[in-house]
Amino acid sequence: MGKRIITWAGREKRRQTNKAVGGSFLKTLTELITNSDSAIKRQLGLSHAVGLVDEMLKLKPGDRVDTAELKKSVPKRREGKILVQVYSKHRGLLPSRTCQIIDYGPGMTEAELDRNFGDYAKAKAKGQRTRSLFGRGALDVFLYHSNQYREDGVDPSAHIFSVKGGTLSHCRIYWGRDSKGEEDSIIQTDALGPVTPSLLKKQSLPSDLTPSGTVVRFLLADGTRIPHEGNFLPSLNSFYMLRIIAADPSMHVVVQRFRSDGLIEERLMYDFDLGTVIKRSHDTFRHERLGDIPVDILVARSDRKMTYDPTNYERRENGLLFVDDDDAVLDLTLLPEYDKNPLLSRIYGLVRLSGIRSKLENLLEAQRPEAVLSETRDGFDMKNEIARELFRLVEKHVRPVYDDEEKRERKGAGSRSSELDRKLKEALRELNKFHNEETDEGRTGRPEPKDPVGPLSFSHDNVRLVAGQERRVTLYADRNRIHEELNVVELTSNNSRVQVVPESELVVRRKGSKFQAIQITLSCPVTDETAMITATALGVDEQVLSTNLNVTDVSEPAQVVVPADLEFRPSRYNGKPSVENQLVLLVNLDAFPGLPLIRIRIKEREGAVTIGTERSEHIEIKTQKDWLMSGGNVAKVVFPYWGTAWGAKATIEAKAKRTDGRLGLSQCKVEFRQQQGPNQYEDVVYEAIERQILGEAAGKYVYVNSRPSLHQRLFGDSQETFDKALEDSSIAQMRVAGIVSDAVVYAVATTKYMKGGEKGLTIDESDPITAVREFVEAKRYELDAKLVRAFLKDNFGD
């Protein structure tokens, strides 16, 4: 008679690791970044909790959620650094698709490497203040990605190098044959010797690893998609499991991408959406197997509609972030029965469960183990009775808020009635029709294919852009070849300066219609750029489908209106968080002595907005001769601006001393407002404009200035009072129709003038005022009546 431990078959390990990581690039990096974050904080003697959650939970209903401002109240702590490296090209000893995560934490000895990575799903961190629970996160990553066959002969093993106590130790994890000849997972450890610069160089390790630290190195499996460049950092920043770490001001997570066109280095920085708190409550979850768990709930309403994808954690933005008191992220959900509701796309917040980690650990170590969280790290396991009871408690607090939000969204935009919504949509339809007809943007420049080829196809293979002007193209998606449930088409640009709107679109099957036409808007503020626009989706067989559109050039406008001294062009910008956005300032050198020094500052802001390569609040730029635009004495000054959250906004001011001793001054507004839809104009917005104008058309909005005293009397001081006046007062309706008509006609005139050529606006230089007036009056004559009819339809007659 004999006895032995029942072995765990290699194929089962493969199945478990595939289920846990599933080829997800974001999950892969998150597991390792989280481990490094915990190690560094243990070494520095810091709590895992950043303090930001505490500050958010101090907010009351009606307070604004501005985590950039809240971070100023978080106590300063010793700083740590994590380096994430992704190689898109072969470099030295590191082949393409190599990933490295480097931290300067306490490091590990050979024995510690064996203990930490030699046992699968063992509670190695039991009793420690850490985020680990199942004891398999990093191993799942290593086993999944090392389970690949490489035709190029490259070893796909995962490697961990670690320095501790002056010794460099090494751990290799791979799939190989065991003593019985069966394939299984294998760990091999060894001490490489005293750490020296030459030893570190031999292993392609950073030279500053000498005191202590760890380098994790592995090859991404072929099925793991790396996000496209334009969406790389935004995807990491907003991935729900990384949000709290990315929001930690004391932890510098630096991401380096080694590409064929050079090195790109950026820091993870996250802020929650700007919004307003609508619910704050406290309760206690009581369960016989867990004891008492204090529950703190904060619910907020974002200023925008967030991505609410119920099937894809990597895309989902809205929802309540469940965390413990160590800032470990447990889930992101509105609760399962609400996740599919598009009317709740603005809702986000926090649920903190204090002390839950040790209770969950005890359940896993019990005689009959029980997992309340899914082993795939996809949140709470809804098959578990404890998880269902917890969610019932949370639902008791949030359901009234959800019900109110549904009513609000069904009513229309903000406080608008359905009737006002209808009138605005009709007015906007007339504005968009006028814009497309006048600027020729409703046409592509050549016939679009009537019978697109393939599941995804653009109307063009190549396009050229004009700086500061939008260009529209069409993407055709075969409704029957796109996955019926995972039906999202994602659009990305490999150059952050070339923007593509929208970034995603749902493909819906429709009887009798084979192709869905998706209108795409491309734009770029600066010249001499190229880009590849990529559309990707999952096919019915869950294989990745893709197609590309090349932006071959971005040229200057045919004509430029010369500013009096200096002027931002345009006066409003819409940016994207976590990427470099560009501002353009035109400088008329005839107004300045020599090449002026321009002082630029952020005058006011909400949320984290910065300018310049150093991301500060004020910069100085010396104008260069190389920046002169052709055909005149105007310099084009281009500099970056940044934001960390949707909803952030700022007013930016530039000034320089003129030849006559006065100051040349210009201001622009930047916003981080997600743009959706194919139309040029999406809404009429009431807000303060510091220039002496009644309104302006910029981006996807037509703005009515709230500063004039007449407007204060007619429309009040907020968007809500403006909407109310627009609904009730015929005088207000007539006034808005005139302002909006003026703004759009002038915007169209500017576009046509800059376009030049046969379809542009030609101005008689001997009498430019009369020429512009003739165009404006003719077009207003055409447009005014249509807008008045839209706003006053009930009293105007049909």
Helices and strands in order:
Layout: H1 10-21, H2 25-44, H3 52-56, E1 64-65, H4 67-70, E2 80-87, E3 98-103, H5 110-117, H6 137-146, E4 158-164, E5 167-177, E6 183-194, H7 197-202, E7 213-219, H8 229-238, H9 243-246, E8 251-259, E9 262-267, E10 275-287, E11 291-302, E12 319-324, E13 329-333, E14 347-353, H10 356-364, H11 385-411, H12 418-439, E15 456-458, E16 462-466, E17 471-478, E18 488-493, E19 499-501, E20 504-506, E21 515-523, E22 531-538, E23 544-555, E24 566-568, E25 572-574, E26 581-588, E27 597-606, E28 609-611, E29 618-622, E30 634-643, E31 649-657, E32 663-671, E33 683-687, E34 695-698, E35 701-705, H13 709-715, H14 719-728, H15 730-755, H16 768-791, H17 793-796
Parallel strand pairs: 2-8, 12-14, 16-23, 25-32, 33-35
Antiparallel strand pairs: 1-10, 2-3, 3-7, 4-5, 4-7, 5-6, 8-9, 10-11, 11-14, 12-13, 15-17, 17-21, 18-20, 18-22, 19-21, 22-23, 24-26, 26-30, 27-29, 27-31, 28-30, 31-32, 34-35
Helix pairs in contact: 1-6, 12-15, 12-16, 14-15, 15-16
Please tell me about this protein's structure.
With 798 residues, the chain is α+β, with helices and mostly antiparallel strands. Helix content is 26%, strand content 30%. It has an eight-stranded mixed β-sheet with strand order 6-5-4-7-3-2-8-9. A six-stranded mixed β-sheet has the order 1-10-11-14-12-13, with helices on one face. α12 runs parallel beside α15 (730-755) and α15 packs across α16. The N and C termini lie far apart (97 Å).
